[in-house]
């Protein structure tokens, strides 16, 4: 039996020193085995048709046209020469929350951002990084050189979770900064005004970016497992509250369900991918499944 440690487990990864090592292990562990590039096709748009010639890839044949005309035509695409992945990482205080032996939401997001950065640069594409709370605190412009990856990982390692968030304003700011169309991936618990969040997300779509929402939550925030009288510590400027959990559980879960439904529905209506991530889950679960589905859609 293989007794080697499970490097895809977030707790195990958190105990390893250096995001560079963690990113390498994540990519080599599952991402690299999915497809030559899980991001292939992200920035490709249909442009026109041309007639099929022997040797062409039949995956691009438009069979609907063939059924009507009895002729083979291929879809042609406008392809950007270089994929740009803009990553937005929420560094507000609520992202520091952790329950039990789980890593914090911020640490979990760091691992995913590091792995995807490593993957994108490994495929000679470009990645940028914006760290934000109630404003953009650090912005690394997209680049694809190995030294850029080192700088990006260093910034991730030295940035603490702090302050309160204002996601709507931040997204409007960044939507205007990102001049070249690409893929915008946002990593957050999204604990902010849903209307303002969705308005900011739609701004990215208006600018013709593709958008992915990575919603990072701690299992305790979802399941509310508290039983005894509990002091709930306020974050992002809110006061501490001593409460009986059983008196709050139903109202809390109803409010959370309403919040999640609103966010998911808003993303679906704007053609935005919504990817839930739990800090107690191994990273080879929902993330690798999502990347595999994206790879399949690009074929």
Automatic annotation (TrEMBL):
Residues 48-255 form the DUF58 domain. It comes from the Bacteria. InterPro entries: DUF58, vWFA_dom_sf. It holds the Pfam family DUF58. PANTHER family: BLL2464 PROTEIN, DUF58 DOMAIN-CONTAINING PROTEIN. This is DUF58 domain-containing protein. It comes from Aquisphaera giovannonii.
